[in-house]
Design goal:
There is one protein chain. By secondary structure, the chain is mainly alpha-helical. The protein has one domain: Up-down Bundle (Growth Hormone, Chain: A). The protein is about 65% helix and about 5% strand. The chain has a 3-stranded antiparallel β-sheet with strand order 3-5-4, with no helix packed on it. The two termini are about 10 Å apart.
Length: about 475
Amino acid sequence: MICSNPNHGELSSREVDQNLRLLTFEGGAYSLMVGMGETYLGALVIAVGLGEYLAGLITTVPVLIGAILQLVSFWGVRLFNSNKNWAAFAAATQAVSASLIAAMVWQDQVTASLLIFVAGWYWFGSLAAGPAWNAWVQNVVPTESRAQYFGIRARVCQCLMLIGLLVAGMLLRTFSGVGVFVVLFALAALCRACSAIAIGFGTERPSWRPNATATSNSFLENLRSLDATSTKLIAYLFSMQAAVYVSAPYFTPYMLSHLKLSYIEYTWLIGLGFGGKILAMTWAGRVAARVGTNRILLIGGLGIIPLAVAWVFVKSVIALSVVQIAGGILWAFYELAILLLFFERFAHDQRVAALSIYNLGNAASMVVGSLAGGALLAAFGGELIGYYCVFAVSSGGRLLSFLLMPTERATERPSFIPHFRFTAIRPIVGAWVTPIFARSRAVVQVPEREPVRASETNAGHASVALDCEPAAANLQASLS
């Protein structure tokens, strides 16, 4: 177990307020970094002339590198004897990686291998920071105010991510040449450095630190612990992710090199997909509370199937804007359903295994899909017909993956909606959403049942709180 049980009584009100301000600041700084930096990595590849194939792979291969490297997080937390300090170190690694990208562009030393390596370390910082940050935050934010606080923090982060996205788009439109990317990634590095410093200034009590006597299951033991239904769900998710990423990495070169969109039009379309997902997430949660998780997965899973092939027929920016907004909404339904399924469908002792397996398997699926898409493009010599083929194959693969959707048992209406944060922006999927594992308040009253824990009782019913602390605390242990 990475951290002991939370003990908010050890914090004074002043310390609590300071921690909440620091968390909001670090989240805002991180969001600016994402909006101005990593989102435009594919555009940077095109600008420096490394080709459309690398522009696609740069969004997937580094993620897999980072997912493999972050398996050392368990030992990292033990080495630092602190979740907070390890999270700050990982965040600083991202800042250094972004600054190295800026330096490479400044010195005109951008090569494919070096860029993939540095971007891999960037994603190591992102993925390694997540579990430790979650384990620390669960102690920092008082339980009774989490719903309100994370709601406010999410809106601040979303707004700043959009601001970063738009500022970068305006700079790219105003200034010609690759030099503007130096400014963008230098600003991104500065923002993440500020974020890391904010984490470092946070409060951490000795009672929250790693338990040196804890044991952990190996990755293979976690894999073997999954039952047939859980395995089928993961197979569906991985196959869908692979199908999506046959095309997803190549929309950036398609928009910039073949549709000849300006940077401001490119930014506009990305922003619409991201904005559609932001607006739809809360709405999707209300729909899930009414009709159940299975139905919103059905809506999202069916809805995302034609999104790729639609780009074969839709050309104008106005029409593509409609596709992006619709896509953002449908992706919100799909991804919220996935988050809920982890906590509603997996038993308590399976959640850590499922999340740790998904973390690495998700990245591997993305790379498999992007390599397949790149091979198709190469077969057609990078011509326009190759992109049409990639989009069609992606939609076809999504349809086949949809047939794998598990239907063995119905999922009831969710008793809670987990908090989440946006990790990255992607041109077609809108954003990469990851859960925040601090306890979430119930959205409906349900009878006491597993795998959730009843925290308050009222006339035979329970106001349910998500028992995510063990998941957050043990996630790094499971990755070992």
